[in-house]
Amino acid sequence: MKKKLTAAVQYLLIYLMLIMHGAVVWAIKYADSFLALLAVMVVCVVVYSVFNLRFSLSYILMFALLAVLFCLSGIFSGDSIWHGFSFKTLLQIYLNFIVSYGIIKIDTEYCLTRFIRLVLFFTVISLVGFAFCNLGGLSLLKRILPVYRYERSTRIYYGKYLFSILWGEFEPNAYQKNIGIYYEPGVHEIVLNCALFVLLFLKKYLRFSRKAYFCILFILVAAVITTKSTTGYIGLVLILVTEALFHRKSITGLMIFVLLAVLAFGVLVDYVLRGADSIVAVHLIQKLQDVSFDGTVRSSGSARLVPIRIAMLALKKNPLFGLNTTKVEYLTFQFFGAAGGTGNALFGMISTKGLLAVALLMYMLFVPMLGNKAVSPFVFFTFFLMVINVSCAQAQVAYPGFVLVALFYGTINPRYLQGKKKDKDKCESTVPETLPEISSPV
User: Fold this and answer.
1) Residue numbers of the domain that contains 404
2) Which of 290, 185, 200, 294 is nearest to 246 (CA)?
3) Looking at the predicted structure, is the pLDDT value of residue 220 above 90?
C-alpha cells in the first residue's frame, strides 16, 4: 500500500512538473492569476510534510539570495513593486526546483523511469492525434474538442488535457505541428528532449527491457521531428551526436549513428524534392532570411533577437540589476511592435534583473553537475548547450525538466545537494549503480 501511495504521489508531482513547462491547461490558469502557482505550492508543502523531505541549506540560502537580488533589482531600477520585484517569476523558479527535488527524493530509484513513462503516455497520444489531424481528421476533432483562447492572443486551442491543436489567425497551418498538451511546439520539444537526454545518458537508472527502451527512443525522436520546432531540432541533433560520439562502440551508439545517417539522408531528399517547402528550408533557411535585428520583420527569429538588443542597452546602463520591467516592455514594443511574446528568457532576464540574478540562477541549475564525476565533460557541455538553446528561444531559463536532470546528477553525487564535503573519489550514490532491465510494478 505504501509503495502504491508513493508511486501515485510521485506521478502527481511528475504531472505537475510536465504541465509547468507550459501546458495549455497551465498557461491559461497561470495567465489569469497566482492561483495555479499557489495550488502547486500547497501540494508541495503537503508532500514534503508527509514524506519528511528537506532541501539542503545551500539551496535554501540560494533561494533567499535570489529573492534579495530580485528585490534589489526592483529598487535600483525604480520600477513599481509588482513589476520590479517579479514575485510571480520568482515563485515559478522556486517551484521548478521544489517540485523536481520532491520527485527525486520521494523515490529516487524509480523517479526517472516514471518520468519517462508519463512523457511516453502523452507522447503516444500526441502522435496519434497529430497523425489524425494531418490525415483528414482535423475538422472532426475541431468539432468535438472544447475550445480555449490564451489571454488576448489570436491563438485558439482545441483540447487541453490529453492533446491540443493550435490554430491562430496568423498560423492557419499550426495544426501541422505536434504541440502535445503544450501551448506551442517549442515548449513540447523541451519535455521530449529532456526525456531523450535521460534515456540516453542516464539509462542505467531506468527500468526498461531492451526492446521497450529502443521503442521509447524511436517514439521520442519521431515526436521531436513532428513538432517542427527549430529549437527542438537543434536539441535533438546535440543529444544524438553526443551519444553517437561518446558511446560509438555500444549498440545504442551504433543505432544512433545509423539513425543520424537516415535522418540526414531524409532531410537531403526532402530538400531536393520539395525545395522551398522542405523542412530545412522552412525551419532553418527561411528563419535565417527573416531575421531582423531592429524588429522591422515580424518573425520568430527577429523576436528572439529583440531581447538581445535590449540586454545590450541594459548592460551599458545597469549591468548588475538591469532596467526596470516597464522600460523593457516599452523598448520591446518600440522594436517589435508588441510588449511581449519575444521569448528569449535568458537575455530578457539580463535586461530586467541584471547579471547577478542570472548568474545565480545558472549556478543553482548547473552546480550539481559541476565537478561531478558522474557527468562526463561531453554530456555536461551538451546539457549546457541545450539549456542555452532553449532559454534563448522560450519563456524560462531553468525549465523544470532541466532542473530534474541536474538535481538527479546531484543525487548520484550527493555532496552537491546535502552540503557535505566529501572526497570526490569517495562519494557514493543514493541510487544503485545499475538497475535490472525489468519493468517496475507501478
Assistant:
1) 2-53+86-246+367-419
2) 200
3) yes
